[in-house]
Amino acid sequence: MVSLAMDVRSSEPCPLHPGQRTPGCGSGTGGRITKKTRSRKGKRGRRRKSKKSRCNKSSPPYLPPEAEEGNIEYKLKLVSPTPQRFEHLATQLKWRLQEGGGEAVYQIGVEDNGMLVGLSQDDMKASLHTLQRMAEKVGADITVLREREVEYDLDRTSRKITEVLVRKVPDDQQFLDLRVAVLGNVDSGKSTLLGVLTQGELDNGRGRARLNLFRHLHEIQTGRTSSISFEILGFNSKGEVVNYSDSRTAEEICENSSKMITFMDLAGHHKYLKTTIFGLLSYCPDFAMLVVSANTGIAGTTREHLGLALALKVPIFLVLSKVDLCSRATVERTLRQLQRVLKQPGCNKVPFLVSRPDDAVTAAQQFTQSTSITPILLVSSVGGEGLQLLQQFLNILPPLSSSQEQEELMEQPTEFQVDEIFSVPDVGTVVGGTLYSGVCREGERLLVGPTDAGGFLRLRVGSIQRNRSGCRLLRAGQAATLALGNFDRSLLRKGMVMVSPRMNPTICCQFEASIVLLFHAKTFRRGSQVTVHVGNVRQTATVLCLQGKEALRTGERAVVRFRFLKHAEYLRLGAKLLFREGVAKGIGHVTRLLPNSNNQDQNQRPHRHDR
């Protein structure tokens, strides 16, 4: 999106006197500087400065020109449109909302070429009234994000530019959903912060807010997350927070929200690193939130989690927690430490400290436009400092994918990744995961596999739940749980996929990938055994060969052929890959699949519980 965080006074030289040359200081005096020449020089300098300042005040500031695609619209003014013009404006707003997945940003007082003209108070009031009527016609609400004054005329007349967020209430629970992976070292306050955001109550300083997020008894006893838990935070069409403080169930939150933030609370301890990697690769988060404790700074797995997010190209923003426990000097020291790490080669990030509501708007908009911007927010889960800025940041945060990309994914065959498997009383077998492509409906018949024998089994999808509430249709990119009735749970495992029968899926034991070795204490050679993570697949594999090289050292690249040790897996070309061997790590993407020869004979076997 577009930011208005700029100085309206241009710093360019005045174009009225290009190439103007000033006389030498020793002109007519043989190079000697006298009192008279100094006074003349001072007067000429003051005159030039005054002309330059007047010229700078008259130079209008600009935004980037308006793009035809996207959810950003520039409007100079919307004062008393004719009925035909109003219908055209409403249709245009509907198009912008579709491009933004239910959200659009209107810049009032800006021309199409990006020039910030501004409007008087009366014209701005009339324009906002017209925009409100347009939003009501398409079933949306408007929220004023911020107002800016533009002053560049010689008569110093003040004009305003208003930035407005328009958000539509989607139908059939198809709200805008963003997934945020929560990273950070153990005891950095991740689960407590999520508990405060989703429950709406501050922590008591002893971890009361995080108790609702834990899934196992040992997590409650130790206070450390060892599994992946999901929490939701909603925003209604007016940008107000919707959480468990005013809603009893998750279904009520979904019904009252136009935008949903799904937090994935990942483990911070090093011995649960495989769980954290699985969450980052399998659930395909849109953003990552790295939580750093202000009193300990960068410690433990903080650097490792930051490196994982950067390697997987997940946009990341930082939250400095527990600022109530530290002095101001300690917070500033930790902040400087974070800024140094972000600016180092390999990161090349630009830290953006969010300290005001205007900063939150600017950070959220520039965060998705530029891969180098990294917002930093300071919060306290006990005192509540900075929580409103974090909520405002999450409210304005736009989706990364466009509507066209979403439609292209929905047109592809159905492919659902199986990440979790449950047995629910009176329901039967239930699988949880993410729909990578296509659409999935209740009663649809799919293939699940590959099995240990390398085949696929037929099944029927019973009911679908998304964010703990019923859903009839699942679209690409959405996470949900699917009820499979009395399908035998022992035949399922993590890493399987459920695909459309017309897809004719192929599996492989061997594949090639273009990799870069992030770190290795010695050398990476043929015969090495590593744990390979590709999407929801996690299995040990052997390195069969390195094309063109005998061995790899840290930082080197190569095309490597891997072979799974246990059984064949379903992979996609171009899928992100991460492998590890102790502290050694590498990343890459799949470039070639070597399918099994008996794959076609074992596909599409019927299951005795298929209905």
Automatic annotation (TrEMBL):
The keyword Transmembrane helix does not apply. GO terms for molecular function: GTP binding; GTPase activity; translation elongation factor activity. Gene3D superfamilies: P-loop containing nucleotide triphosphate hydrolases, Translation factors. InterPro entries: EF-Tu_GTPase, EFTu-like_2, GTPBP1-like, P-loop_NTPase, T_Tr_GTP-bd_dom, Transl_B-barrel_sf, Transl_elong_EF1A/Init_IF2_C. Residues 594-603 have a biased composition (Polar residues). The keyword Nucleotide-binding applies. Pfam families: GTP_EFTU (PF00009), GTP_EFTU_D2 (PF03144). Residues 175-403 form the Tr-type G domain. Residues 33-55 have a biased composition (Basic residues). Residues 1-68, 592-611 are annotated as: Disordered. Keywords: GTP-binding, Nucleotide-binding. Belongs to the TRAFAC class translation factor GTPase superfamily. Classic translation factor GTPase family. EF-Tu/EF-1A subfamily. This is GTP-binding protein 2.
